[in-house]
What does this fold into?
Amino acid sequence: MFDRFLPRPEGFIPNSPGFHSGLARGHGPPRTPSAAVRSFTGDHTLARRLGWVTDPGPVATSPDDVAPPAGLRGARGQMLAISLAVLGTLPAVLTRIAGASPQEYLAPVLFGFAILSASFLLAWAAEALQLDISQGLALTVLALIAVLPEYAVDFTFAWKAGKNPVEYAPLALANMTGSNRLLIGVGWAMVVLVAAWRMKSIAKKRGYEGEIDTDTVLDRPHAIEIAFLAIATLYSLTLPLKRTLTLFDGVILIAIFVVFFWRIGKSPSEEPHLVGPARLIGALPTQRRRVAVGVMLGYAALVIFLCAAPFAESLVHVGEKAGISTFLLVQWVAPLASEAPELLVAGLFAWRLNTSAGLGTLLSSKVNQWTLLVGSLPLVFAISSGTLHGLPIDSLQREELFLTAAQSVFACAVLVNRRLSVKEAWALFGLFISQFILGGVLPDGARELERIIVGCTYLALAAGMLVVNGRFVRPLFHDGLREPVGELFREDEPEEASSL
It folds into this structure.
């Protein structure tokens, strides 16, 4: 992939601000710094922000520096990955077709692994789908398809809540809050930390000892996702104040997603940057590629349809038998199975130092989970129950919703300048893992206070970030909501750098 970026001046280090501006949405080579920077005039700050290092030295990169793991290189490795994913689904599919009942402790593993494997097939097919639809729309469709397993599990619990709200309504919300917090606390942080480690490793390997900008910078079009996530997050702060998630809430959140989908669909159609098995599929002739994508999407959807309900039920039964909190199993184990492929895809982008694509995909997933997924739950509940009553929210779920909404507020505040630093990534991960550990070790009576304190900490940190970066708020919302989408893709260099 690197031949199209040559030639490079001596002393070039790839990093997210310059090396990947343009890659995330497939719009051509990276932006080129000014002649002054290229001639090393000494403007170190501008050079570092654009991804170029002014200090001379043998710091050139090679394809091996950002290549995927050896086992997944080449057509053979990519075909092997697809074959293993298909094989991973077969035991559960055959079990369902035969009407067999696996042992209680084996069932979650069997069905969960099938959902995991199907999720990989979904992600690869959805990436290849970018060749046939506009790039911005493709990222949203990719994010939507990638979290289809999450929808399936959540809808299963919401449907069952229509018949038995006392037992299943908390589980529907538990799965949703767990997956949302996992996406930000682990996913977003992982992209930044993996890429930063890779950049430093490459620099050390090449003998470079200068300063490196390890921040992940999202391309300007990602202002659309951030703006709509902020709007949905502001509305979500009202949910902990309610006793039901109503149909009105669902209409508002789904409307936010529809407008977001409409705006992102105006993105220009451009050549995507495919990696791994998606690249193998994308290399097929047009007709064969479309058939392959359709078959993979259809088969993966069938697997998820067959396995979502037994997977959800088996988690509940295992929790009851083993004396483990069913709530915790549903909140964390189920999202791990459904989110793992998406996190792995984002991790691969980070490994290849295409951080804007990695973080951008997870950002799109967060938007559709926080709008369409949450908004659909009361609708599924109403259809199942045959009433217009909203999905019940108990005191525990109100606390969980507050904590999840507060984390989302902090995440939006961090990204208001379209930049995520290593320190901010550690803050996201540190707060997430601290709350996760405290929730497991504290006595029941203290957990309520712990959730409130952590949520307030998120809000306080968000307020501090907005004070520091308040000047970025208005431009962000202008780009996200008002600027013609085509203009966002025509920007020649990062906004911050061009203003220096």
